[in-house]
Structure of COP9 signalosome complex subunit 7:
Amino acid sequence: MAMDAERRQAELIAQFSSQAVALSSAQQLAALVLEATSHPALFAFSELLALPALSMLAGTQYSSSLDLLRLFAYGTLKDYKNNSGSLPALLPDQVRKLKQLSVLTLAESTKILPYDQLMQELDVSNGIVRGKLDQLRRCFEVQFAAGRDLTPDQLNNMIEILSDWLGTSDSLLHQIQEKIKWADTMSDVNKKHQKEFEDRVEEAKKSIKKLNNLSRQTSTYEGMTTTSLNL
């Protein structure tokens, strides 16, 4: 299910990116931003925001569409309300989308969302957030939430976390390799001891065999001597 959603996101991003590259006017690009931010299945916008074609919106009468796209990439409904005077009015589909994105932002920081927050933000379907309502504790327990676009600060933090994880993994791998080497060494030592033991057993067998042969030869010689004496 999650893989299907990620595949759908990638397809939509590629579709809108291709359209943006083909457009030649700020008005057309502003219309594309409107379509993308209203699309019910698209929840990632940073790749669109990074397209050089969209830089055409800067400094034009449609520059607020670029700010709106940035809001959908990183912001919340509260951010929109605080800056609504400088942003385009939202269509019902965009309002719904921004509420959904706002819930994703809440789900990033905590897995237990109080009702008071959800009453302001929650309008979720499409499976981008899954969980269960706990009426006794008056909260929504998040079990799954789709990822949002990362701000530059979040990206740097994520890189640091992954770097730390990589360092820990390298250390653990080194420890495992050392244990494998130790196990191989002990195995070689045990094989050597086993070979030495088997060699000693073989030598002992040979010694016993020689003694037996010697004993038989002595008995035969004594028998022959006795016979000679009797003659």
In short: Residues 150-231 form one domain. Residues 20 and 28 are 9 Å apart (CA to CA). The first strand starts at residue 112 and ends at 114.
